[in-house]
């Protein structure tokens, strides 16, 4: 169930924070004894100086999308 929630959130964010008409790419590939999941989109991205903040709860790169 946790894996489902993680994948759902990744895909939901890729869609939600994408540009209008943007694309989302999801791929799964074998990786050793497991698998590698990649979710990529054509959205605004995360500036290099802010990548260390991506695990902060409710952090948004694009402040205009904030609920506050």
If you had to describe this structure to a student in words, what would you say it looks like?
The radius of gyration is 14 Å and the shape is globular. It is α+β, with helices and mostly antiparallel strands and 68 residues long. The chain has one helix at residues 2-16, and strands at 24-31, 34-41. The chain is 22% helix and 24% strand. It has one helix and two strands, in the order αββ. A two-stranded antiparallel sheet has the order 1-2.
Number of H- or I-type helical stretches: 1
Report mean pLDDT, rounded to a whole number. 88
* Most strands sheet: 2 strands, antiparallel
What percentage of amino acids are in beta strands? Answer: 15-25%
Inertia-based shape:
globular
Q: If strands are numbered along the chain, what order do they take across the biggest sheet?
A: 1-2
Number of strands: 2
Radius of gyration, taken over Cα atoms and rounded to an integer in Å? 14 Å
- Termini gap: 30 Å
* Helix-strand pattern: HEE
Contiguous low-pLDDT stretches (5 residues minimum) are none
Question: Helix amount, in percent?
Answer: 10-25%
Structural class: alpha+beta
